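worker-03 picked up job from queue 'complexes'. Input manifest follows; four sequence lines, order preserved.
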Amino acid sequence: MLKEGDFIYLYNDKATYMIPFQKNYCFSTHKGNIRFPEELEFGDKLITNMGDEFYILKPTLADYMMKVKRRTTIIYPKEAGTIILELAISSGKRVIEIGTGSGSLSLLLSSLVGESGKIYSFERREEHLENAKKNVKKFGFGNNIEYFLKDPLAEGGFGVEEIDSIFIDVPAPWTLVECAWQALSNGGHIGFLSPNIEQVQKTAEELHKVGFARIRCMEILSRGIRIKKNLTRPFDRMIGHTGYLLFAQKVKKGNAELDFSI
Amino acid sequence: MLKEGDFIYLYNDKATYMIPFQKNYCFSTHKGNIRFPEELEFGDKLITNMGDEFYILKPTLADYMMKVKRRTTIIYPKEAGTIILELAISSGKRVIEIGTGSGSLSLLLSSLVGESGKIYSFERREEHLENAKKNVKKFGFGNNIEYFLKDPLAEGGFGVEEIDSIFIDVPAPWTLVECAWQALSNGGHIGFLSPNIEQVQKTAEELHKVGFARIRCMEILSRGIRIKKNLTRPFDRMIGHTGYLLFAQKVKKGNAELDFSI
Amino acid sequence: MLKEGDFIYLYNDKATYMIPFQKNYCFSTHKGNIRFPEELEFGDKLITNMGDEFYILKPTLADYMMKVKRRTTIIYPKEAGTIILELAISSGKRVIEIGTGSGSLSLLLSSLVGESGKIYSFERREEHLENAKKNVKKFGFGNNIEYFLKDPLAEGGFGVEEIDSIFIDVPAPWTLVECAWQALSNGGHIGFLSPNIEQVQKTAEELHKVGFARIRCMEILSRGIRIKKNLTRPFDRMIGHTGYLLFAQKVKKGNAELDFSI
Amino acid sequence: MLKEGDFIYLYNDKATYMIPFQKNYCFSTHKGNIRFPEELEFGDKLITNMGDEFYILKPTLADYMMKVKRRTTIIYPKEAGTIILELAISSGKRVIEIGTGSGSLSLLLSSLVGESGKIYSFERREEHLENAKKNVKKFGFGNNIEYFLKDPLAEGGFGVEEIDSIFIDVPAPWTLVECAWQALSNGGHIGFLSPNIEQVQKTAEELHKVGFARIRCMEILSRGIRIKKNLTRPFDRMIGHTGYLLFAQKVKKGNAELDFSI
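worker-03 finished. Artifact:
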């Protein structure tokens, strides 16, 4: 049985909502109102007063990310999966992210490092940080996140050390490479998401100069396929680009990668 | 300082190796021999007797996956990231995977569900299972994995209940849909990776029949980009296809998705 | 100097129009009215009464295709380019297309086979055929096209012989494979565009059965890139799918491709 | 019946050859020898002395392009299709290409502009030009091509005027933009294929400066699909990148595109 406050992914093929379960609560969809019963389970189906059916589903991690209230561009699941694997995000890890944005990646990182891990999340703009905090808290994540309303560049660095992994999504990522090197443990992981190729070019050059190796860049494309009898095919429209992913690992100063001839 | 047994990702742009650190051990690469010193740190650089340099790097989660000894096709990182997010794999979750294969996904799942979670990993072929166990153990994962040398179809199901998420990568995935439904908790997540579209078509039809909703299919393409001064461009070759991902969620019997007109 | 009736591609980065030049004609755009002067050249710029600038450009072949009045889905330039090369469309060739649709491919084929070539264009629906004829004629193509308001399946075939190449874009393409074999010259080229994979599967099986070899399928993706100082990147949205292209070549009956194990 | 000298595409799913038909000629394949009979038709099948079958097929335009003897990177069919449509290559057009390379695009252009058209093909390196000439002639194209062993930049331009379309594939394409503007008719089409994004960036900036509008860039991906009963899927490997296509049209000097803010 669902408990009050448990998050539900309300789903049909036209619309989706993420809301906390509340007994007898009346929820307005674009397809009419739904009244929640006293007892409800995942896998049930409810019908609006206009006759539309909605499934009561468990949210995926991707659902939480997509349902944050957005005040900024968010990190999308298609990139987040690769970020996790390339930055070795797992239980117990200490991770920096900058900027917090709307908190879509923050809640994922929080979920994956668990109680024994720690997320240090930096954001310069107060209204974004407040929105992100609300998003993360509302969905039940974030006990292991420490937020900073701060520009590390202006204030002499991140102020933490021996960090396992750093993820950077800001307009001028190259400016933070030296700060990041200082905060990372030896061999530590760094990752960037940048929409423009010029950002990647400048950042890769800076990584090389400051002391990082294994510099690599990729883009991730996700293509939805409609599976329907005699009508199976990729969907007509797809996301052509969100951003370029750039990864590297900290090495000792002077250990520049000889063959990375930028 | 690295401790004996810590795994090292030995990296240069021509070759990579994953090996445990051992003092004074002499390791043979394709580019000559490396002798490990008494003291070594991540971020150091070692030189072979033929003059080639290798970085001493921390492995990413993707590196562990790619460096299992392969007796089967493995799950690649580009799909694994999406699998984690869509199946809501995180700390404390109870997850079934079938088949174990070479253990590349097993070690990732093991890493992500942590000590409070549990992986039930099924494989029919003994030689594959033994290889996978060795792979997972060698890299320091797997305390939370229970292995089964078993065909659930022949033996009346998975034999476990209230599972959060199931991942299926077998040649006839549609045959396991009913067993999976029985093993999952309400609203639970199911995922498949299948190379051929016909497998996806049959499995989607079976999912619909047995009692799953939110059936969705996608493919993930990862495109490497070379970042080099005046020579920036995508790499000439890319992986065109590994498999189709198919996801769904368990609903009550009879709650068939009306608009999924297979 | 432009002559009256010459087609102009009116272009700015917000809107485009294809119209014939007429002296002193006043043309309404979404951004105000343009009055054509007595004398106009390609490469000139005109300004609407609301201050918006439009370039006077020569149409590309792709522009003609995209600017037909659409009553059906059209063949897009990204597929048309491959169709031309794989079907060996060039000066003097005799080509069948079915269906005519809105005529976007018809005008391209007409342009490429020239005066010494011939296009036989079949369409079942009169309103589509009339629209296509108008489109093709309006843009100055089509002297070498013979139109047929006809279903070749119902009427015993195409009624022409020794055809070099046939292009088929209909909902049940497999039904026309035998007719097409009859109409083609030995070794002749056949091509199909089909949105759904099941259409491709059925058609490939029929091709194999009837007497075609070198059966091959592909999809073409075109990805626009924005080139802008410090803001260079692929566009956010792209066409994820229009259709699968399928090609084959006629061989003698009985010469089935042994290794095409459908 | 095939005449002596007619080009044949010898095809099976392991190997392909392009050769002229000669009665009684014995041709060596990797799978044994084939002796041509006195009489042969397209659509026939021949068997090597080692038992391998080959189809006798009509070449497509793509086949000619792919079978030139290569001394340089060639233009591939996937880009060539788009080049034709965007540069409005058709019967009677006057076209410049630079460089000639191995002649793969030359023969296609030659085929499409026909007897009433003209190709001016420029190449700086004599050994490439000689190879290209041989390739084009061998396959029966090229009567309408005039070749120039010349660097237009060093020699004051292309030396021809009122050209309809120019295609540029050289390492420093931006250096030729002014020459190209001089050679083109008003509103004329220009296209570039460049492997690196920096080439595209510099060329787009130069186009804007010199007097071109409608500057647009794209990349074309072609993805092969294996159609086989119960084993239908994209091929494992694909070409990830050949080059970026850049197109524009000549406008009057001073008519810079206001909103193209490079």
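worker-03 released lock.
Chain A has two domains: 7-59, 63-250.
The domain at 63-250 of chain A is CATH 3.40.50.150 (Rossmann fold).
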